[in-house]
Specification:
heterodimer, A: 58% helix, B: two-stranded antiparallel sheet, 21 helices, 73% helix, globular
Chain lengths: 143, 502
């Protein structure tokens, strides 16, 4: 049983060897002329300025989350389209269809929720807190 | 293929899912001040689900049983799972009720609060019924995601955010470890169905990789039940989360963790394959490991609870201690062990919900959570202090409270095993109960003997919370009226097998 994992071990060893050998070979071949630009951490072409501990705009995550709704929809509907024919042939076409509709309905509810809560508005007139009275901060002992 | 029997088996889950969808829609339709009303919908949904569970409970076979598998074995609706699901429903209903007036949850966000509670409850139900490793993982994640958000529910409180962040990070590591263990098990046996994994393991000789897979699984599940050394999140999360959420997590999440732990242990271990159970055949010393972890869990939990100034933190460590007692009972693998665990969770629900309810009321009045607020409470508000004392005494496990009965059955199940190892385990649990006496009585002493602080504010109890507290306290202090019936139901749910490993 344990020998079955030997293949995986080979993969791991090969992965390490591949990187190591290639780095070593390029080390032998390439000229070494370091410059400040080259020594800089790679940040997709941007100059990394300042601290990494800054506040990011959470709206990016909102968009990513809404994207997940569509992504999941796609990932599940695609396989169903493949086997829907065989289901329909077996007389379960309606069942499969309505199952899918319920699924899409649940996901659509997620989209409606994000929409209604205003998470799809990219430009916002003013900072908006959760509607109603904001919660009073609960004071704790300083320990 | 989908059948009507399948739909009957997951009727409670369907009810919960529909309810949480409706709660979400109502939350969108209601004005912020009205959103609290979604609690009524949540309560009725949970009640309906509970009634369906009771119906399933009457019909189902006890754990582990091949006849109880649905959806090609993905979903197991045996009576043990149904009993656990009742406990989850109780915990959810309790969290809705004591969260209704909590000042820690702002009115506008009550809809989301109920939605997340129901989502977590749904995840717990799937955990209890998971018959497949993939299902185990998905259900654990479903519970976890909802709990992470609930833990950080007080938006502008740094402690709440800190607790939630720690929860996410620890939880991510634990679930990563668990899925790694699952992948090794799958690599061994080529199947993910728990029963088939057990049979596959039974065919193998002893192997370090099987032990490793078991250990990794134990990390993930140990995290959920707050087992030492994976308990580090508990105090921070329990302290940071709103008190109703803390009560919900400490009852429901722990029970769900135990439900999965029992199923994984006994489904993988209990197969009738030639040569006995899979775990035993793979020579995994799971009993010894669990016993050591149980003793560690109760000792670390109880010792750390000493000297805590925050009531939520104290109750968090106490819940770690209780996880230790329950883990000890897991090592028996007998029907009486399982039924004592089920019974204990019912009792644990009563006393923990009661204690947290008092914490909610007191922190509503003072806006903080410190043992100083309890000084002299007995003089000012004898009702509140008396009920709290009852819950604390029951958490220690002193007679005649429900906590005593719960511990009595746990320890009886251990002693019944006969061997000196189990007696040693019982002794450790008894010693730990003595340690726990100190910090529970410390609060009682504070309430009844110390002078009240002059600037202390009066705690408003209200009519409904007062009735709830009185009922919980009565059930806790006088368990003889219902204890027998609950125990009978628990033993029926656990079945009558002498051992799950045969």
């Amino acid at each position: 049983m344990l020998e079955g994992f030997g293949v995986i071990l080979c993969f791991i060893l090969f992965a390490f060897a591949f990187v190591g050998i290639n780095l070593f070979l390029s080390r032998l071949l390439r000229p070494s002329r370091p410059s400040p630009e080259k020594a800089m951490p790679y940040e997709c072409g941007e100059d990394p300025v300042g601290d990494a501990w800054i506040r990011f705009n959470p709206r990016f995550y909102m968009v990513a989350l809404v994207f997940v709704v569509f992504e999941v929809e796609l990932a599940v509907i695609l396989p169903v389209t493949v086997c829907l024919k065989s289901w329909a042939a077996a007389g379960h076409g309606a069942l499969a269809f309505w199952e899918l509709m319920i699924f899409v309905g649940i996901l659509a509810l997620g989209l409606v929720y994000a929409w209604r809560k205003g998470d799809l508005d990219w430009v916002r007139p003013q900072p908006r807190f959760s509607a109603g009275t904001p919660a009073k901060p609960v004071q704790r002992e300083n320990r | 293929m989908l059948t009507l029997a399948d739909l009957d088996a997951i009727a409670p889950e369907i009810t919960l899912a529909v309810t949480l969808g409706l709660v979400l829609v109502l939350d969108l339709l209601f004005r912020p001040a009205e959103r609290r009303l979604t609690g009524w919908l949540a309560l009725s949904g949970v009640t309906l689900a509970a009634s369906q569970i009771v119906k399933n409970l009457a019909a189902a076979a006890p754990l582990p049983s091949a006849a109880a598998g649905f959806f090609s074995g993905m979903f197991v609706a045996d009576s043990t799972a149904s009993f656990f699901k009742l406990i989850f429903c109780l915990a959810a209903a309790g969290a809705v009720v004591i969260g209704y007036r909590s000042s820690e949850i702002s009115r506008a966000r009550h809809g989301e609060y109920h939605f997340l509670l129901l989502a977590a409850t749904l995840g717990m139900c799937f955990m209890a019924s998971a018959g497949d490793l993939v299902m185990v993982y998905l259900a654990v994640e479903m519970l976890s995601q909802a709990s992470y958000i609930l833990a950080g529910y007080i938006r502008n409180n740094p402690r709440s955010s800190e607790g939630a962040l720690k929860y996410v990070i620890y939880g991510g590591v634990a679930s990563g470890a668990m899925i790694f263990g699952i992948s090794i098990l799958y690599g061994f046996t080529g199947v993910t169905d728990l029963v088939l994994v057990g049979q596959g393991l039974a065919g193998t000789a002893s192997s370090p990789a099987a032990l490793m897979a078991f250990l990794f699984m134990l990390v993930g599940l140990g995290f959920k039940v707050a087992m030492v050394p994976f308990h580090m999140w508990a105090p921070d999360v329990y302290e940071g989360a709103p008190a109703p959420v803390t009560a919900f997590l400490s009852i429901g999440s722990k029970a769900a963790g135990f439900a999965v732990l029992l199923r994984v242990l006994f489904s993988v271990g209990a197969q009738a394959a030639p040569g006995g159970g899979g775990i035993e055949a793979a020579a995994i010393p799971w009993r010894e490991m669990l016993a050591v972890l149980a003793v560690l869990t109760m000792t670390v939990g109880n010792l750390s609870a000493i000297g805590q100034r925050s009531l939520k933190r104290l109750l968090a460590f106490s819940s770690v201690g209780h996880a230790g007692y329950l883990l000890a009972a897991c090592t028996t693998a007998t029907a009486s062990g399982v039924s004592s665990i089920l019974f204990y969770f019912v009792v644990y629900f009563l006393m923990t919900l009661g204690a947290f309810h008092v914490v909610v009321l007191v922190s509503n009045a003072t806006g903080r959570d410190s043992d100083a607020d309890y000084a002299g409470l007995g003089w000012k508000q004898p009702f509140l202090a008396a009920t709290m004392s009852i819950f604390l005494v029951s958490l220690v496990g002193l007679p005649p409270t429900a906590g005593f009965l719960g511990k009595w059955y746990l320890f009886t199940a251990l002693v019944e095993m006969g061997s000196w190892k189990f007696l040693l385990l019982t002794l450790a649990a008894l010693l730990n109960s003595v340690i726990s006496l100190y910090y529970y009585v410390y609060i009682i002493k504070k309430m009844w003997i110390e002078e009240p602080a002059p600037e202390g504010r009066r705690v408003v109890v209200g009519f409904v919370p007062g009735i709830l507290l009185a009922v919980l306290a009565f059930l806790t202090v006088y368990p003889f009226g219902y204890g027998g019936a609950v125990l009978a139901a628990a033993s029926k749910a656990a079945g009558d097998r002498a051992s799950f490993l045969r």
